[in-house]
tRNA-uridine aminocarboxypropyltransferase (Stutzerimonas azotifigens), 204 residues
Amino acid sequence: MPRPLCTRCQRPLAHCLCPLIPSLPSRASVLILQHPSEAGHALNTARLAALGLQRAELWVGECFEELAGVLDAHGTGARLLFPGEGARILMEPWPQTEQTSLLVVPDGTWRKARKLLYLNPRLAELPRVALPQGLQSRYRVRKAPVEGALSTIEAIVHALSVLDAPLRFDALLQPFDALIEGQIQAMGRDTYERNHALRDESSA
């Protein structure tokens, strides 16, 4: 019999993360576009991000018919968080005059995220912003596919911490850290130390 799930965070009731999920204000709105393959993922940090931010929405799908209207409503204040040619590295806050700022974040593997851009041409037309190099993920139980790769929730925290400075969003990572710690406990601390911690030290 499947374990009962929390209807909010979608975690097993015995491991519900809701008490750790904050309710953080932000000046920028966040729209997370999640590929369907990610919706059932055990981690699903995009859902945690959407629950923890007051001005965030999570849409699941491949083609988003409502997207054009949302982008039109935000005018020149919309940005796509995705690396690529012409992407501006996030180094300074959004101008205070941009009250309709919108950060659009694709959620999926690199291949699936690129597919979202292909299927939704308005996404590809948006000005792109990217995170600076050298950031380290806190996801300690899986090797990043490329150097500097972050989970969706980590990327959003880093981006908003720059765009909405001096506001801070570190509290958004509390349920993420608890989720990782739960995975470590499930595999056994000895197994983690043997297979992951030593690997991290050797690559440092």
Remarks:
- Residues 198-204 have pLDDT under 50 and may be disordered.
- The chain has one domain: 24-203.
